[in-house]
Structure formats: structure tokens, C-alpha cells
Amino acid sequence: MALSTLQGALELGLIYAILAFGVYISFRILDIPDLSVDGTFITGCGAAAICTLNGHPYLGVFAALIAGALAGAVTGFLQTKCKIQPILSGILVMSGLYSINYKIMGNTPNISLFDKETIFTQFSSWNQSKLMPLILCILIVFMVFIALYVFLKTQLGMCLRATGDNEAMVRASSVNSDRMKILGLALANGLVAFSGGILAQYQNFADVNDGIGKLVIGLASIIVGEAFFGKKTLFRSFLAVVSGAIVYRFLLTFALQLGVNATDQRLLSALLVTLAISFPVLKKEIMKRRKRTC
Amino acid sequence: MLKITDLHVTFHQGTIHERVALDGVSYEVQAGDFITVLGTNGAGKSTLLNCIAGNIEADQGKIELDGIDITWMKEYKRAKMIGRLFQDPLKGTAPNMTILENLGLAYSRGKRSTLSKAIKKSDIPYFKEQLAKLNLGLEARMDTKVGLLSGGQRQALTLMMATLVTPKLLLLDEHTAALDPKTADTIMRVTETIVKENNIPTIMITHNMKQALTYGNKLLVMNEGKIVKELSGIEKEQTTVDQLLNMYDLSA
Question: Chain A partners of B101 at a C-beta cutoff of 8 Å?
């Protein structure tokens, strides 16, 4: 593999690590399978792309964050106030977002940012080094890591974690668990959209149909990472999220280099997640069989 | 203190499954009362507690706590004033968080969740001191995840958490029923100590008649959504388990 390919995989991995952080909040902390991710990622792409197109790349990533958080709050609202099942809430928001994303992008299915000023071109203008995009990605992930870690150690962050762990107990501790869920889903989807916004500027491109499978990418990252770092402490879980996203991206890049078709990528991801989640059951079953034959 | 006036609750109203759970319950809890509640299954004991705690809404009637009308107040808002324990020892604690984190959460009860640090180092000695009272050695395991504790330990911890910020009222819904006799006994003794020390008005549902007679200063028997018998003071002290059983028969 060429060095530039490796660097590209690392950069993409870091950008997707932010997505994985978002999925981590909904899937692991709140224990909610949030399907709106597939829509909010594109909301972020679109919002960032439109702002960038009009010469405001920094405003773009910020707008992505806010738009994603709003969409996430809607998912939370549907779940808590309208009592719609979590999965269905996610599907409804994801589906509805398709139309909204199209509108955000100015009624075009895709936007090219070729030759436009992005956060990457602006950052690279400081220095000619080819490593500048990588450095920017590392900086952003580092900031997200720290900010999120500190947040989860605050009172509010702890209430959020407890809500996913034991909702009845949280209410008995005089915490509004509905509000916590809405807040958590807003934060999760804000990060997902933020990741989308950065990706759009990184690849100079936003496509309204690109959202499918983003949740699976996030899940795969978390699961792959947890194989290395486990989930004993919050810090280890966070390391798992970042490393998982990077390793997963390398695996994909490697598969593509081996000649695997790019359209098969989603099937591979889905299989990986299926295998990883069912692994404990498979292991148990194999042990049982072995015991019987002995 | 706590004043309940003509409380009615009917489940599945207007269907063939319609069932009256509370049929005009009125009662007043005095400051310093420790009330035990007995009654057959379906007598309305748990419904009464759920109404007071706020996870079941009354159809009719009024609940006042310290002069404040809480009949329609949201559950999590009442939780500022009411501590609560359930039969299931898993219900009161967050399993994937440490003992320290659980206590920290309980200690912030009634305060707004802010962006300040969840666990203040200066609070830890107080937590340890409180945990030491349980005599379970939990004070040395502050960083253990609660999910690794036994049911009895978790229920003891829940009790600690429910009273860490002294509530105006403590509701115990068969909180020792899922524990082995020895652990149940320990938890009951700890309960009494904490309740007496902090002078917390308490309502305890139980199916254990001995428990109902041993603890508390008043005893209520419920049947078919009504309070059918109230024993207090000497009358309660002189009642035997056999006599209590007869009361069940009379009311049934």
C-alpha cells in the first residue's frame, strides 16, 4: 500500500471516529439503537457543503453540528413524548430527513466543493506539508475526545449515563429521564452530523444518498475497538472508539486494495457487526457442543 | 405531613378488565410515623404507594405532602422529596456505574444537574462514613461496579442512596421480600436505624406479618382498595400474628 493511501485511511478513520463517538453515546451510553444516524450524517454533509459553497467553511461544520443536534432532539422527542418505539423513531426521522437534506442542499442530489475554500485548504495554507490534513483531523478528534470525556464526568453527564443504565432509578433520583434522552440523542446526532460536515469538506463532495450504512460503520468501529481496549472504564471505551474507527477504515482500505468491489463494502460491514455481536452466543454454543462430545 | 384524601384508582376503566384498585382511601401520616401496610395481593397496597410516588395517576382525590398538593406533580419532581425502595434489588441502582458514582447521583437529588464535577472529592469521606454504617464493607469498594454486588448489598446501597439526602417521606415496597431471611433481617435493622436517626416518616408494605408487627408504630390492613384496619400504639404491640391472620379473614 502506498504511504499516501495509508495516510488517507488514517484521516478518514479519524473523521469517522467522530461519527463513532456519536453512535457510542446513543448505542452504548443511552442503550438506544438510533437509526436516525443515517439521515443526520447527510444533514451534516449538506449543511456544511452549502455553507462552504458560499465561502463559510468554519460556519459549515458548526451548522452541521447544530442541524444534527436538532434532528437528534426530534428523535428523542418522538421516543419520550410521543411514546414511539426507539427503532421506529429513528426510522421516521431518517426517512423524513431525506427530504429535508435534499432541501438543505438546494434541491440538488449532490454538491461539489472542488476548488472551494474548506477547513482543510485553509489549514493547509499555513504550511506546505502534506501532513496538514492529518494534523487537522488529529486535532479535531483530540478536542472531541477531551470535551466529551470531561462532559461525561460532570453531573449532567453522569445523569445521562445513568439514564441508559437504569431509567427508573434516575427518575427516582429526581432527574427528568425524558430530558436526558433528548439531550443525549441531540448530542449523539450533533456529533454524527459534525463528522459528516468534516467529511464533506475533506472529500470536497456531498451526496444526498450517501447516508445508508453510516450507523453500521459507527457500530463496527465501536465493536472492533472494544476488542482491543475493552470497556472497563470510560477512558478505555473512548480509546476503543477512536482506535476502532481507524482499524476498521484500514481493514476496508485493505479489502479494497485486494480487489473487493466498493459496493460490497456495506455487506462486509454488516457481516462484521453481525459476527462480532453474536460472537459470545456462538462461543457458548461451540463450548456446549464440545462438552457434549467429550 | 402526608395527607391522602378520598383517593380513587381504577385500572382499565370502561373495559371488561375494569378493576378498582383504590376505592376512596383517606389517611394522614403524622411526622415521625413508621407505618407498616399489610394486605392480600391486589388489595391496593402497591397502587397506593405508586400514587404517592407519582408513577400512577389517581382518577380522583388529593395527595398533599407538607401542605403542597402533589396529586398531579410529575414523578421525577416528587422524587426530590420522596425516597423509594422496590422489591427488586436491581431496580434502585445503576449496574454499570461504580458505587461512588451511584452515591454521587443520589447525593445530587433535588439539585439541578449542572456541568460541575459529578463527584466532589470533599464528599467522599461522608459517603464512606455513611456506607460504613451498613457494615458490609462497601466503603472499601467505592470503585466497584454496582452490578457486581449481591442483591442484599445492592438493596442496602439503594437504601443508603434513598436517604443520603434526607427525604420528607420514605416508601418501601416489600423491599426485603426478594432477599434471604438473614439478609432481609439485616436490611430491616438498617432500615430502622436510618429511619429513626433521621426521623423520616415511612410507609412500608410487607407480606411478612412478624415484620409488620415488630417494626413501626402503626399498622394498616388493606383490602379491596380500602384501609380496613388500623392498629397503633399498645394495640399494635399486643397484637399477635394469629390475631392478624384473623383480620385478613374478616376483611376477605
Answer: 158, 161-162
Other CB atoms closer than 10 Å to residue B135's CB: what's the count?
Answer: 12
Domain CATH code at residue B156: 3.40.50.300
* Residues of B at the A interface, defined by Cβ within 8 angstroms: 74-80, 83-84, 91-97, 101-102, 104-106, 108-110, 113-118, 161-162
Helices (H) and strands (E) in chain B, counts: 9, 10
pLDDT of residue A263: 85
Structural domain for A200, as ranges:
3-263
The range of the structural domain enclosing residue B114 comes to 2-251
Within a domain: A289: no
Query: In DSSP terms, which residues pair with B65 in a beta bridge?
Result: B2, B68
Hey, is the C-beta of A170 within 8 angstroms of any chain B C-beta? yes
Which residues on A lie below 8 Å from B114 (Cβ)? 154-156
**Model pTM score:** 0.89
Residue A291: per-residue pLDDT = 84
Is the Cβ–Cβ distance between A139 and A227 less than 8 Å? no
In terms of Cα–Cα distance, which of B61, B65, B64 is closest to B6? B61
> Quick one: closest CA in B to A156, which residue?
B113
Residue B214 CB neighbours (<10 A):
12
Closest CA in chain A for residue B118: A155
C-alpha cell at A12: 478518514
Task: For residue A288, tell me if it sits in a domain.
Answer: no
Tell me which chain A residue has its CA closest to the CA of residue B110. A174
Q: How many domains does chain A have?
A: 1
Give domain status of residue A269, yes or no: no
- CATH number of the domain at A19, please: 1.10.3470
DSSP state of A33: -
Q: Average pLDDT for residues B111-121, to the nearest whole number?
A: 83
ipTM entry: 0.85
Under the banding of pLDDT at 50, 70 and 90, the label for residue B206 is very high
Does residue A208 sit within a domain? yes
Question: Span B83-104, mean pLDDT?
Answer: 92
Contact A156 B114 (CB under 8 A): yes
The single-letter code of the amino acid at A282 is L
Count up the domains in chain B and report the number. Answer: 1
Q: How confident is the model at residue B66 (pLDDT cuts 50, 70, 90)?
A: very high
Does position A166 have pLDDT exceeding 90, yes or no?
yes
Dist CA A195 CA A90 (whole Å): 19
Quote the CA–CA distance of B33 and B203 in Å, as a whole number. Answer: 8
Q: How far is B116 from chain A (nearest CA, A)?
A: 5
Alpha-carbon Rg for chain A, nearest whole angstrom, is 19
